[in-house]
Automatic annotation (TrEMBL):
The gene is atpH. GO terms for cellular component: plasma membrane; proton-transporting ATP synthase complex. Belongs to the ATPase delta chain family. This is ATP synthase subunit delta. It is found in: Cell membrane; Membrane. NCBIfam families: ATP_synt_delta. PANTHER family: ATP SYNTHASE DELTA CHAIN. SUPFAM superfamilies: N-terminal domain of the delta subunit of the F1F0-ATP synthase. It is a peripheral membrane protein. This protein is part of the stalk that links CF(0) to CF(1). It either transmits conformational changes from CF(0) to CF(1) or is implicated in proton conduction. F(1)F(0) ATP synthase produces ATP from ADP in the presence of a proton or sodium gradient. F-type ATPases consist of two structural domains, F(1) containing the extramembraneous catalytic core and F(0) containing the membrane proton channel, linked together by a central stalk and a peripheral stalk. During catalysis, ATP synthesis in the catalytic domain of F(1) is coupled via a rotary mechanism of the central stalk subunits to proton translocation. It holds the Pfam family OSCP. PROSITE patterns: ATPASE_DELTA (PS00389). Its main location: membrane.
Amino acid sequence: MANDEIAKRYASAIYNIAKSSDSINEVREVLNILMENYEEEEEFRKILEDPLKKFPEKEKFLEKSFNHVTKEALGIVKYIVRKQRLSLVSDIKEYFLKLYYEENNKLPITAIFAKELSETQREQLIKKLENKYGKKIVLNLKVDKEIIGGGILKIGNEVINGSIKNQIEEIKKNF
């Protein structure tokens, strides 16, 4: 079975567990922390992927690392490690979020602008996007001074590039 399918199955099972225990937000957060630690902390990754370490030893390490989360959320982390699916945690988290957004009629959008938006601009953008897509918008704002002005919207696989930098590149191509 392809890793993509495995990640989808794990995400679905984890989502159902989180939903039944009314801990979707906490599980989402713990998956995010697990993913960040796995991708960014070499020592964390070494300990949990060491084939010479038995699971009880890894379990103690996880209990120390995740001592601030509920028993259910910790159980999910332990399950992912026990089943040796840490390398899929990023995909599992992504599919988990897709399930959450679909069920709650939400649409995640990344918006990149040359400078921070004011609160009024942010609210207007969200309102326009909600009217256009008919869903509650989860807006992730980023600043990239290199785009000069305008903005870039990333909606799933669609990219709407209205940046001045992009417009300049298009003009250069035409000359």
